[in-house]
Amino acid sequence: MRSVIFRTVAPFLTGLMVLFSIFVLLRGHNAPGGGFIGGLIAVSALAIYGIAHGVETVRRAIFFHPMAIAGAGLFAATIAGLVSLVARVPFMTGLWIYPSVLGTEIPLSTVMLFDTGVYLVVIGAIGSVALSLEERGGS
Amino acid sequence: MDAAALTFLALGLPFVAAAFAPALTRVLGHNAAWILALAPFAIFVHFAGFVAEIAKGEIITGGYAWIPSFNVSFSWLIDGLSLTFVLLISGIGALIVLYSGGYLKGHPQQGRFFSFILMFMGSMQGLVVSDSFLMLFVFWELTSITSFLLIGFDHGREAARRAALQALVVTGGGGLMLLAGLLILWNISGITQFSLLPAFGGELKESPFYLAVLLLVLGGAFTKSAQFPFHFWLPNAMEAPTPVSAYLHSATMVKAGVYLLMRLNPVLGGTPEWQILLPLFGVTTLVAGAALAVRQTDLKLMLAYTTMSSLGLLVMLTGLGMPHALEAAALYLVAHALFKGALFMVAGSIDHETGLRDLTRLGGLRSAMPLTFAIALLAALSMGGLLPSFGFLAKEEIYAALSGFDRRSMVFAALTMLGNALMFAVAFAIALKPFIGPKVHTPKHAHEAPLLLWLGPALLAVTGLAMALMSGLAHRLITSPMATAVAGQPRSVSVSLMPHIGVPLVLSGLTVLAGIAFYLNLARLRAAMTVILADIGWGPDRGFDQFLRGLVRFAVAVTRRLQGGRLDVYMTATFVLVAVVLLAVPFRYGEFPRAPFFSADVPLHELAIMAIAVAGLFAVVLAADRLTAIVSLGIQGFAVAMIFLLYGAPDLAFTQFMIETLSVVVLALVMTRLRLSPSDHRPLGEKLPDFALALACGLGFGLFLLKVTAAPFDATLTDFFNRYSKAVAHGENVVNVIIVDFRGTDTLGEIAVVMIAGLAILSLVRLRAGSLQRGEPVEIAAEEAKREERA
């Protein structure tokens, strides 16, 4: 499994896949994609990196414990739902703002925050399972 | 700010104070009590402002919508009943906070204690002013939870933990019964508020569900108010620090059950069932409690058992249905709250100053603690029902209610006199015995209690005296409105300290005489009771332990049977069930699909994809080793994803690709961990049943899908989402918009599940690895064996 080619390519592949997963996450509202799929892609990226360079390297690379990432995601998703309560509309109502950055209008919404939460939960939860399996499986 | 907003604030104030209590105590030490007591005091002042209005016969309701779609509100009802309760709770609450300042002075966790007791107070306060059923239930359970924290405050001791758990199980279980009762009540009446119930009352008693409601409500009330045979948690709750006992017994917690019965008396009361069950349980509790109290020598335990009998008396009076009974209940409730609170605090002071609470080892404290002695005497006068105390008024009214000459009255009068006489003996045993006689040696050098310790009981005892002396005012402001609210019709209490010659006074006199006789023979009575109880042997307290042990054993047996720990058994069971459901149902109802229609001109590429899927299937079955089989499973999955892609579901296809990839990876990892042999070496005889099962499941799913797709497609939802996805939710990808917006709350739940599942798997992986390293099997049986040993 750990051929030289694979080990050389893996970091680039992983980077690309993570980047792609974010792209999929962000475009999800209007085209195929979204937090769940994006999260799965990112987990695959982590799994590949783990197979190529060992779980310790992955853990160092993502810095946080995967479950902490999942927790942050769940927190973000809940916050996204609660924001609407502050605005005095029912829980989980999507709210949008359109700030203009350097002349470009960028749509931001609680829905996007929510989808990001989903993305992080999927990465964290499935990632931690995959990593812990890899860890013991190798040794 | 209007009165409604202020009331809302008053309901929240104890919890706010609870949040600040630990920090405040860290800064100010035990003197934080002076500031924290302001919270209940402010509440007392706020509600005292309603007294004049309520005395005029008005009822104050208010509140906010909570869950309007279910007609559930956060609303309160202030009438004579709830007002009396809330004044007792906040008034005594303030004194208890002060008392705990002195009692737990220097305790490392005093801040936490303040916090708990304020929360407890807030829960009880919310309970008695609740108008909506659900709110009452929430606060009801909150009192169970906060009392759990308080009883188990000294959590280092096994006995305290057990008592806390016991109180929680008993009262929490009762709370669930209450919830069921309230839901049925809601169902048959369509009403969710107590204030609207009386208008519906008559119909309720006719309802076929009346008995069910009654029994469930009684289940809640009797467990909370420690009626026999659910009384055992109450004396065990003495494990809590004394301020808790004083509060729990005088104004809160155990009074909640009585409150509930009084609140529902106009709606559920007056029926034969009500008038049989309540007096029966009440009088049993009264006599049993008094008899058990006599046996004790611990001051706190003696008081605890007399609380039990007082609660029995209150329940009896509420259910009796005779003239004067409800008035007597109102009077006795107030009197009891005042004298019991005072006596508990006195007992705590004695314990605090001498280090002893055993009646037989105490004596001669009168010169060392004169003030405490005076307070104890004053409270005991009220408990014994002697002039000139509020307890005297209550006792007169009780006997006025029981002074009939029919057989029912006479039986209850005799039993009540027995109970009261025993309580009289206990009251004076506590108020006299530790103080009179020769001085005895105590672990601590006895001296008068400090201000914080005597202020509370003194105020309570003096209040009892003042209310008796100004009985006209007290009746007009407190007891008459309360009796009116309990009865559901105007009642006025008129009993005064001037003794009227008549049957009640005679009964009262006889009670006192009997009480004196009991007091003089207390030691003999105690010995007799000890012998009797030893002969009986078994009691509900032990029964509780046996019940819990039985429950655990049952759970272990069930778990061992259902969760044997063999994955193949689980999977076989699951798939057999799936196959049965999918095949037996259409077979039973003859609902098999018709033969599918195959279009003649299927495009070549679609045929190719189907061929790949089928080829993948064969590859799985024929694979020489497990790893190949797993990878081959991916072939079939990718083919299915392609089909999704062709039929216009790119999101689904996308997800399917990812899931297939990841499941191949994860499965492969799991397989390497399991250290299985590379291929399946079972003989054909073992493989065939699995094969048949797989075939049956596949066949079932196939038939099911054919049947489902044969029905005409209902496009209502599709149209809805297509139309509104962009317009309302600003997204063109309908699938994603449904997930994150239209059905966002579902997704929130789902990702929570994903995370919890992840945590569970993670811990299983760790557990397994850890136990393998240590080389010891982790089994429930082993755990259970350990627990048995400890027990």
UniProtKB/TrEMBL annotation, chain A:
Sequence intervals crossing the membrane: 12-29, 35-55, 67-91, 111-133
Taxonomic superkingdom: Bacteria
Membrane topology annotation: Multi-pass membrane protein
Stretches assigned to the Na+/H+ antiporter MnhB subunit-related protein domain: 5-126
Signal peptide residues on this chain, from the entry's feature table: none
UniProt keyword Cytoplasm present: no
Keywords associated with the record: Cell membrane, Membrane, Transmembrane, Transmembrane helix
InterPro entries found in the cross-reference section: CPA3_antiporter_subunitB, MnhB
Main location per the UniProt record: membrane
Compartments where found: Cell membrane
A GO CC term assigned to this protein in UniProt: plasma membrane
Protein family per UniProt: Belongs to the CPA3 antiporters (TC 2.A.63) subunit B family.
Name this protein carries in UniProt: Cation:proton antiporter
Source organism of the structure: Sinorhizobium saheli
Upper classification of the organism: Bacteria, Pseudomonadati, Pseudomonadota, Alphaproteobacteria, Hyphomicrobiales
From TrEMBL, chain B:
UniProt domain MrpA C-terminal/MbhE: residue ranges: 688-766
Keywords, sorted A to Z: Antiport, Cell membrane, Ion transport, Membrane, Transmembrane, Transmembrane helix, Transport
Subcellular location: Cell membrane; Membrane
Membrane topology label: Multi-pass membrane protein
Span of domain NADH:quinone oxidoreductase/Mrp antiporter transmembrane: 130-413
Domain of life: Bacteria
Any one GO molecular-function label of the UniProt entry: antiporter activity
Domain NADH-Ubiquinone oxidoreductase (complex I) chain 5 N-terminal: 67-114
Transmembrane segments: 34-52, 59-78, 84-104, 111-128, 134-153, 165-189, 209-234, 246-262, 274-294, 301-322, 328-350, 371-390, 410-432, 452-474, 501-520, 569-587, 607-624, 629-647, 653-670, 691-713, 747-765
All residue ranges annotated as the MrpA C-terminal/MbhD domain in the record: 612-675
Major localisation: membrane
One GO biological process term: monoatomic ion transport
GO CC term (a single one): plasma membrane
Pfam family, one: Proton_antipo_M
PANTHER family: NA(+)/H(+) ANTIPORTER SUBUNIT, NA(+)_H(+) ANTIPORTER SUBUNIT A
Record-given protein name: Cation:proton antiporter
